[in-house]
Amino acid sequence: METKVYAIDAKCPEFSSLARAAEVIKSGGLVAFPTETVYGLGANGLNPSAVAKIFKAKGRPSDNPLILHIADSFEVEKLVRLVPANARVLMEKFWPGPLTLVLKRTLAVPDEVTGGLDTVAIRLPDSLVARELIRLAGVPIAAPSANTSGRPSPTTAQAVLADLDGKISIVVDAGPCGIGVESTVVDCTTPVPTLLRPGGVTLEKLLAVLGEIELDAALNSESAVPRAPGMKYTHYAPLAPMVLYEGDESNISAAIVNAATIAMTSKRVGAVVSTETAALLPPKVAVAAYGSRQCPEEVAAGLYQALRAFDSNPVDVIYAEGIAEIGLGLAVMNRMRKAAGYRIVNC
Ligand code: TXA
Ligand code: MG
After folding, report:
1. What CATH number is associated with residue 86?
2. What is the DSSP string of 220-259?
3. Ligand 1: which residue has its CA nearest to atom 30?
4. Which of 54, 105, 185 has most ligand 1 atoms within 8 Å of its beta carbon, as the pocket-test mutant?
5. Number of independent structural domains in the chain
């Protein structure tokens, strides 16, 4: 299959390209499209055989449920049995935006979407391109991140093509995604909502609105089984083994410079680090800088590109710099620990 790229303006999407992409969705095909978080791999979320194609293209385990993307809040009513008061508050406050809500599903939602669970994850994206595509398709669009399972999520159309060229009909290219990490997933079926995956809406913002929120046990323990099935898989991993340095800012920098300087005598060394640390590394180290460590938004937006930087410039080992778990830093560190397969050095 030839994958076509439709380049469109994110702010003023051209109708005819999106209409063609929507036709592909309607007829049961796959379309990769931008959202404000990462690119998604979309199919008609009410058509089981279309949804099955997503799992095949990504090599995704079938027990890992998908998010249904909708274009207007009212569309949630057909898909869920009940919208509890706290979910209603979250929708009003954060939709459209990078927040996914897990709710009790109706029979309108195919088992293929939910992996057989009695809940469904729903999100109303802020991206105008995404919402126009959903509107034109006239159905909820089931979409995971548009990467091969286990790889870093794509934040550009080029990253989508690197994984899925030839496996999907269309990539709608509206340039790089603004946020750069996936949506926050909150389970609203528990008396107190539970954070299953940190993401684009920060924990601080959720707390300010809800007053209280539980954290899924698996967020702070490697051994607990996560309630978001996708959180149990190794994910976001670059091709070379990665070691993550966490702790005090200046200790991390010094430790990475030291480790890289020693390793580069016998290995090709890569570094996924802040611009601050990048400036201290010897020239022989291949550096992918994700932005300033003082600005978690910048780090989130640059992280997945940095994790993919060594795909075309292979190295033997990657040293990565952690940041403070404040704001988007919580989601960034969650992804970096998985990308490192929990090889962590505490500084
Ligand atoms: O920002 C995002 O959320 C992107 C864009 C494309 O919207 N999508 C995305 O999808 O990250 P995916 O499939 O890569 O991650 C969805 C996560 C997985 O961890 C999955 O297990 C969890 O949401 N999830 C989906 N349905 C669920 C459910 N019913 N209960 C618990 N977790 C669920
Ligand atoms: Mg994903």
Report:
1. 3.90.870.10
2. S-SSSPPSSGGGGS--S--SS-EEEEES-HHHHHHHHHHH
3. 228
4. 185
5. 2
Ligand 1, residue 228: give the atom nearest the CA: 32
Residue 227 lies in a domain: no
Tokens of residue 304, six digits: 């997945």
Q: Left (φ > 0), alpha (ψ -120 to 50) or beta: where does 53 sit?
A: alpha
Distance 324 CA to ligand 2 centre (A): 23
Same domain, 283 and 168: no
Question: Tokens 């194609």, residue?
Answer: 53
**Ligand 1 site-directed mutation target among 36, 54, 67, most atoms within 8 Å of CB:** 67
Is the pTM here over 0.85, yes or no? yes
For residue 17, the enclosing domain spans 4-215
With respect to residue 15, please indicate whether it lies within any of the assigned structural domains.
Answer: yes
Q: Is 229 in the pocket of ligand 1 (CB under 6 A)?
A: yes
Taking the CB of residue 38, how many other CB atoms lie within 10 A of it?
A: 28
Q: Whose CA is nearest to atom 19 of ligand 1?
A: 230
Tell me, what CATH number does 318's domain have? 3.40.50.11030
344 pLDDT band, cuts 50/70/90, is: very high
- Determine what percent of the chain is predicted with pLDDT higher than 90: 89
Does 83 lie in the same domain as 42? yes
> Tens digit of pLDDT for each residue in 177-220?
999 999 999 999 999 999 999 999 999 999 999 999 999 998 98
Considering every ligand atom shown, identify the ligand nearest to the alpha carbon of residue 149 and give its number: 2
Q: What is the mean pLDDT of residues 225-251?
A: 88
Mean pLDDT of the chain: 96
